[in-house]
Amino acid sequence: MSDTTLWLTIIGAGLCTWLLRLSFIELWQWMSVPPLLNRALRYVPPAVLAALVVPALVRSGGAIDISPDNLRLMSGIVAATVAWFSRNVLLTLAVGMGMLWLLESVI
Amino acid sequence: MSPRREQFSAGVAAVAPMLPGVAPFGVIAGLTAVGTGLSSAQAMAMSVAIFAGASQLATLQLVADGAMPAIILLTVFTINLRFSMYSASLAPHFQHLGRRWRLPLAYVLVDQNYALGIRHYRQGKSGTAEFGHWFFLGAGITLWLTWQAATAIGVFMGASVPRDWSLDFAIPLVFMVLLVPTLQDRPHIAAAVTGGTVATLAASMPLHLGIVTGALCGIAAGVWFEHRAEAK
After folding, report:
1. In this structure, are A15 and A60 located in the same domain?
2. Which pTM does this prediction carry?
3. Mutate to test the interface with A, among B50, B114, B173 (most CBs of A within 10 A)
4. Quick check: B170 and B28 in contact, CB under 8 A?
5. In chain B, at which end, N or C, are there fewer CB atoms within 10 A of the end residue's CB?
6. Nearest-neighbour CA in chain A from B121: distance (Å)
């Protein structure tokens, strides 16, 4: 991606995000949120985050790989367990990254 | 103390305990931006312009994969759709304010000050109906400054971190920590399982539309499960 395109993408993404934040604050007088949309929006965080996490682990090398050779998947499973019980950012990062470095150096 | 200052300081105080949880995301955002090949200025501009961690990290991933700008914007739009829900929920409390207030207030709207702000309005202490936006602003500015400082630290560190440290792996780890608290009931879990599975299968789709496709299917699954639970 060229430098100019990258700048435009950053600015465009910022503008898009700001407009979403502003949306109903400005539209409030003209329209209310349709109930189905309101219901659907509640599922955005789990759907989006899982769509980001799972492929990054399962397809870490490009193709689907659920074998123990997939070091990122193995480290990710350990980190997910830590995230589940601790909900702590730093601890999850430390365990996940540490696990990956360990496996990469051993294997 | 004037009601404005009182509300503002209460907002700063309310958000303070959340900052240690926010800062590492910002550091990772700065670190990964530099690792992806962005200049320091671009890395900082990203945190100033977007000011939303998950979409910043997804943008970087897509830039690294060589996705088209239109697809990146569509992905950012999908990830940040939740802000329109926050926007609708806060809207009635901001209607007495002019545009001069509403535009910048919208800019600092993120997950944390939304949660704090809406609780503050519901508690409805005296002065909140009129001056509650100062509370929201106090929390928002604090989060904004923390985010920018954390990004700057990440950018600074990024210059000295070798590439073979696999730091891009920090991105899914960060998403994981954000994902866990959203899995509050069966429809939410269904949304996550569907979103993750479809995104994985769709990752080889042309144009890097896997994330968007997965997310939309996940949202549909959540709505469907909720509907089914209600019908019983």
Report:
1. no
2. 0.89
3. B173
4. yes
5. C
6. 15
